[in-house]
Specification:
By secondary structure, this protein is α/β, with parallel strands linked by helices. The chain contains 8 helices and 9 strands. Strands 1, 2, 3, 4, 5, 6 and 9 form a 7-stranded mixed β-sheet that branches.
Amino acid sequence: MHSKNFQPCERSVSVTTQNHEASPSGSEEQLDQAKIIEETGGVRPQNARHLIHCLSVIGQIEGHSNLPEDTKTTKYEHILPALVAIEQDRSIEGLLILLNTMGGDVEAGLAIAEMIAGMRTPTVSLVLGGGHSIGIPLAVSADLSMIVPSASMTVHPVRTSGLVLGVPQTTRYFEKIQERITGFLLRHSHVTEGGLRQMMMNTQEMATDMGTVLSGKEAVACGLIDRIGSLHEAIEALYHQIETQEPRYC
């Protein structure tokens, strides 16, 4: 399991979210939680062993173009500032990322993944339902990645739809995008480069596409995900990280 080097440091912190020491009334707290869920898909339980923020990545990851209104999306322009606020907030001790996504915009997905990977706040990801395509870098970006047995992950090469210029430059452009994704996965998981490329280029798994669909156990067996686990085990693993890490601040 990969880990981050937590070193105490001095830095100025601007807390933009609710202070843990505040004690709002029950109705005010419910309104605050409802607003957080509506705007970011996240929630912060107050009466817990440790204060963790739960962030959900669901549906399709929306990038530079707006998707149709009937498509369930996770908007990266909402997630990025939320991650900045979570990292700065001294009261938040950990981040739990719940994933059930079909993938989406490559650059938006990689941007979110790099943000999570660069956090000093302890992080655990849990794949529920599916963590397909660019959802895979999001899953492995956490300090510890977990998946439920019934979930699946689809590994495939970069692809696009619409008009494509059939020139060598286009081919090289897609190769560079693929190298960015492959490099991130190799740095943040235990999958081998050969195994990853074999899964991507598999033509025997899907009738009209190339790639590999992995069950939860297969994702762990190939080294893509760290371990099988449920919600309870993901929270306990996050608590363990919080209790054993070095202080975040001086």
